[in-house]
Amino acid sequence: MTATGSQGPRLEAVDVGYTYPGRKATQALDGLSLEVRDNEFLAVLGPVGCGKTTLLRMFAGFLRPAKGSVRCDGADVDGPGPQRGYVLQENAIFPWMTVRENVEFGLLAKGLDPGARRSVSGELLDLIGLSSFEAAHPKELSAGMSKMVEVVRVLATDPSILLLDEPFGALDAQTRARMQDALARLWEQRRKTVLFVTHDAEEAIHLADRIVVLSPRPGRVMADLEVDLPRPRSLETRFSPGFSALKRRIWEVLGLGAAAR
Amino acid sequence: MAAVPRGGWTRARRALLALAALALLYGIASELGRYWLPHRIWLAPHYVEDAELLPPYRSLGEEMAFLLESGILLSSAAVSAGRVLAGVVLGSAVGIVLGVATGRRPRLEYLADPWVTFFRFTPALALLPLYVLWFGYGESSKVLLIATNVAVVVLLGAQHAVRSVPHVYLEAAASLGAGRGLVLRRIVLPMSFPEVFASIRIAVGLAWVTIVVAELIDPRMPSLGYLLTLSGAYPRVASMLIAIGTIGALVLAFDMVALFLHARTTRWMGRAA
Fold first, then answer.
1. Closest Cα in chain B to A159
2. What is the average pLDDT across A232-258?
3. Mean pLDDT over the full length of chain B
4. How buried is A235 (Cβ within 10 angstroms: 0-12 exposed, 13-18 middle, 19+ buried)?
5. CA distance A106 to chain B (A)
6. Cβ count near A52 (within 10 Å)
7. A126 found inside a domain
8. Quick one: pLDDT at residue B273?
9. ipTM
10. Does B272 contact A at CB distance below 8 Å?
11. Is residue A156 a part of any domain in this protein?
12. Cis amide bond preceding B38, omega within 30
């Protein structure tokens, strides 16, 4: 599927540093290196303000690293592109378009005719159970629904890489769990290379193949953990010993363990 | 929406009530005025006899009947409204194009900013003698004066609207592969539409202010501006009041059409203007 195949990483950050300018300059990232392999679901986990979003914006092409380099398929990232689907942390659903127009926007940009657009959007809306809302405007959707529309809007153009920035961060716990299940199902159906940023350890464990834990600002890699839990993941997974052990491990790395401090 | 006080009335009913109260007060004042206000006033360079400073309803009715029967009022309203409309359409078009262009392209704004500022602080009405010289005594100088006024307001509105399109929408669209044209058509224009429209509404009010002055250029009937000037020269206060009332009613009508269009095109926002 890709030029590099399974040899090289799809996404790669090499010794990346970034400092936000200003009267009190903020160092967001310092000497961060990580890679995401082909078709791997990598979660980047870290406390609020550790530079997770900064890192993701670099991969999305909206920010250039001040130090080091950010690469996609071996080439430096130079601006945004539809091969890297990016779901922002903020609500970025277009409120003046219907749900269907939102999902079809990337296809419109590609120049697909209405019939072709419709068949893709129909299938995706069906997948997330929102077919009956296709003509609705986003104001009629709940927060969880509209975030899911944003996710499938990105999937519509079939990017091989997904960059997700705490997509479910603003949702309540139950809705978040439901959305995580929906995302896990989507990913199991259509494998993609995913870089998922979150501050929620359980979310990271439930979704990812591998978790990179970042330190508080400036963000550095503190741990790189394989998630060795069977797929498809279910409610059982969330309460399995392996899940708990990993969660404990992460909390210890973050300095929240009983032994720490 | 803020809570309506207990037993609260709709806006339209309150407006009607206020109007009725005003009409009643005016009736009383004009009847009293017949005895207390001077009938002989100094209007340089001579005295005017039998001036009705607050014409009673009888005089207003007679004057209204004359202005309607002679066709003066309706043709004046139509001509003035036509000029306002032409000026608003032309000025809005220019304002939107310039506002969007400068709002979207920082380099263009960098170049255009001093010019915009210059025009912004130039009282457009002061351009009147200049426009007469440049564009003659015909329709063009009147319409262009209104258009200039409108364009400045709409330009600033459109520029601000375009610049305040949330960056999340622009970034989401760019990651979905949208080019400049698509972003402009499907993201920037729909998102800035409400604010552009609000600035046009303000500009329409301004256009009606301008028309009264603009119609002093080569004053000729039919026109509401000249009707006002003429009734001031006689003086006929009844005509003046009718002309002022007609302009007020037309401003209200223009604004209601604008509000209706605004509500129709921004239903996605789920709130009123």
1. B176
2. 87
3. 86
4. exposed
5. 5
6. 26
7. no
8. 39
9. 0.87
10. no
11. no
12. no
pLDDT one-digit tens code per residue, A181-200: 888 888 888 889 999 999 99
Output the domain CATH number for residue A171.
3.40.50.300
User: A103: which chain B residues are within 8 Å (Cβ-Cβ)?
Assistant: none
Whether chain B has a CB inside 8 Å of the CB on A88: the answer is yes
The chain B residue lying nearest A86, using CA atoms, is: B175
Number of domains in chain A: 1
Q: Which two tokens stand for residue A14?
A: 């090499």
What confidence score (pLDDT) does residue A122 get?
94
Nearest CB to B177; choose among A62, A81, A139: A81
Cα distances (angstroms) measured from residue B210 to each of A214, B127, B246: 63, 11, 15
Instruction: Enter the tokens of residue A165.
Output: 């920035």
Is the pLDDT score of A2 beyond 60?
A: no
- Residue A36 covered by a domain: yes
Q: What amino acid occupies position B184?
A: L
Interface contact A84, partner B, CB < 8 A = yes
pLDDT higher than 50, residue B4: yes
Q: Which residues contact B194 (CB under 8 A, 6 or more apart)?
A: B161, B262, B266, B269, B273
List of domains in chain B? 69-266 (1.10.3720.10)
Whether B172 and A88 lie within 8 Å, measured CB to CB: yes
Domain span holding position A231: 11-90+161-253
Question: Cis peptide before A216, with omega less than 30 degrees from 0?
Answer: no
One-letter identity of residue A247: K
pLDDT tens digits for B106-119?
888 888 888 888 87
Residue A229 lies in a domain: yes
How much is the pLDDT for A172? 85
Q: How confident is the model at residue A257 (pLDDT cuts 50, 70, 90)?
A: low
Q: Which of B175, B209, B174 is CA-nearest to residue B87? A: B209
Using DSSP's 3-state secondary structure scheme, residue B52 falls into coil
- Distance to chain A for B191, nearest Cα, Å: 7
At A200, list the tokens. 């929620």
What is this structure's pTM? 0.81
B218 SS3 class? coil
Q: What is the pLDDT of residue A49?
A: 80
Q: Is residue A260 over pLDDT 80?
A: no
Closest chain B residue to A107, measured at CA: B176
Contact B171 A82 (CB under 8 A): no
Q: At a CB cut-off of 8 Å and minimum separation 6, what does B162 contact? A: B99, B100, B103, B104, B188, B192
pLDDT digits (tens, 9 = 90+) for B116-164: 888 778 777 788 888 889 998 888 888 999 999 999 999 999 999 999 9
